[in-house]
Amino acid sequence: MQAIPYIALVSALAALALAAFYYKNVSSAPAGNERMVSIMKQIQAGARAFLRQEYTWVAGFVVAMAILIPVVTGVALSFVSYLLGAALSAGAGYAGMTVATMANARTTNAAIDGPAKALPLAFRGGAVMGFSVAGLSLLGLTFTYLLFVEWIGTNDAFEIFTAFGLGASSIALFARVGGGIYTKAADVGGDLVGKVEAGIPEDDPRNPATIADAVGDNVGDVAGMGADLFESYSGSIIAPVALTAFSLGLTADAASHDWNVQLLMFPIAVAFVGMIAAIIGSFAVRGGDSSEVKALARQLHRGTTVAMFLTVIGTLIMGGVFFGDADLFEAWYGLPLSVIGGLVAGWGIGKVAEIWTSDHFKPVRRIASQAETGPATTVLSGVSAGMVSVAASVGLIAVGVLIAYWGGQQTLGDTTFGGVYGIAVAAVGMLATTGVVVSVDAYGPIADNAGGIAEMSELDPSVREVTDALDSLGNTTAAIAKGFAVGSAALTALALFKSFEVALTSAAAEEGRDFALSLDVGSVDVFIGLFLGAMVPFLFAALTIDAVGRAANKMIEEVRRQFREIPGLREGTPGVEPDSAACVGISTRGSLREMLAPGALAVVVPLVIGFIDVDALGGFLAGALVTGFALAIFMANAGGAWDNAKKYIEAGAHGGKGSDPHKAAVVGDTVGDPFKDTAGPSMNILIKVMTIVSLVFASAFV
């Protein structure tokens, strides 16, 4: 068992080696003609400039937290793991963004020869992101565990280990919010003026917001999403380790004892199995001659299917190895079933997302038909579809939690700890194949950029048909990955919450007094906390959506100004170019300013409540978890449904491009943009940031 962290470390290095292999594979592909290369370089420059500024702003917050954590908690070395988590999270996002901005033009060029070449190339570009995220996360976690638990053996080893997750969360929070505001301000502004007012196609080179929109796809849906999944993956592994350590009162010396080591190492072993499975699964993705979305989807999802199957087999084997000792454990199969239950629940939530966001199913086609009667009915049908999808996803989470709880009790005995531990490792199972899941997700922005470059480079319409098919699939894969992320957030937050409860009790015992966290709804402080917690996700969503609106307003005014003041721009006079840099600057400045208030909310509110009343904080976290999960699913699926309803009409249904239903669908898509790419994806970070902040500062609250 002592070798597990070292084996996991090797698997993390293998993932990073695979990312390097795919990077070379993508970089060696031809980028196309001079115009395509020029556009690619503009996108690269804008994305790098934004990330540099964003990381500069966030660095101040990270340094302040690195000082605050040891001062308030008294755990001196916690700042080391906190900074490591933040640095690796930022590095994963930057690496993914770098290759994504390189893969876009190359995918466009490959699309000239059809989807057989374009799809694998876009996937490999996304795979650099996927395996950088999973590899750096597992590398950082195993190194932190080995350093503080095995090698140094400090008294506060597990408190230090937990701080790694807070570092990852700090970057993810601002990267997701800032990147989301950037991309949607450009997208909304460009669409409303270009497609609705000026009547020009999406990604038309005459539209000054087009480059900013393409930059936004990378800083929001690649760098931001990468930091998001890095934090989710890290948190899912930290939760069962922290739960075990705090529940059993473990020190570094006790970590090697029989019962303890199995429970501490099992989540890391599952992560190792999932990593190897994801690496193998990535090689199963192939192209195909058909540009039909269904055929492309089968090719793309083959990697995920293979990875999931191998993870199930590997987890069962690990279960026998870890829990086969009848003197220490009861049924060996219980915890492996918890992991598999989480994996299947995550797949199920992804499937719900596919059903509600793909134009091959009724919800999207119903929204498209409602566009016949205008924007109002389009918006209403999208809201309804998103809400119905919440019911299906909540049902899946409930079943997954029950299976995981039962599995934990089967192996560890009929105890609350055993059940909650089962739920914690179910979250690891849900994200075990993160490498390939993120690869499929990051493929989407690359395909989207490829379509934009095809349009701006004025390539043959057949190329745009291929990239549109790839892009339509990308919207669905993005919704699936968001389902995995928010599903794991719910399970991880529950395990972290239980760890928080135990940490409070332990901290009080060290002070020589008894304490038990109360969640009695009849208690006024818990009741108030529940309502405050239920309110915060709505307030957080409102702040981020308002931020998109304000930044989009400035973008709309700038695009209108350029159409009005630059002679020949709207008409497409040869040699007349828009001022794209001005639009990039508007999105950059707006998003960086606007990300501060929502980000501060997630950190400050639980700290303030915790120092006032710990029972109120317990109610607060419970309320935020429930409403945050529901809002995340609703907004992600409603936004994806509106987007693909628009694309379904653009493909020729209900009058096609330029028709009144198309204009109504564009309005629906515009409403859905901040839902699915800004506020919705930020919810899973919000609920975990608030929980892990509470856990890290638990000792200070008592």
Can you walk through the features of this model?
The protein is built from 20 helices and no strands. The longest helix has 50 residues. Helices cover 83% and strands 0% of the residues. The mean pLDDT is 90.
Shape: globular
Q: Report the portion of residues in β strands.
A: under 5%
Overall pLDDT level: 90
Tell me the number of helical segments per DSSP (H or I, 4 or more residues long).
20
List the helices and strands and how they pair.
Elements lengths: L3 H24 L6 H40 L4 H34 L3 H37 L5 H42 L11 H38 L10 H25 L10 H31 L10 H24 L4 H9 L4 H38 L3 H15 L3 H23 L4 H50 L13 H42 L14 H15 L1 H17 L1 H37 L9 H37 L1 H4 L1
Helix pairs in contact: 1-4, 1-7, 2-3, 2-5, 2-6, 2-16, 3-4, 3-5, 3-6, 3-13, 4-5, 4-6, 4-7, 4-13, 5-6, 5-15, 5-16, 5-19, 6-7, 6-12, 6-13, 6-14, 6-16, 6-19, 7-8, 7-13, 8-9, 8-14, 9-11, 9-12, 9-14, 10-11, 10-18, 11-12, 11-18, 11-19, 12-14, 13-14, 14-18, 14-19, ...
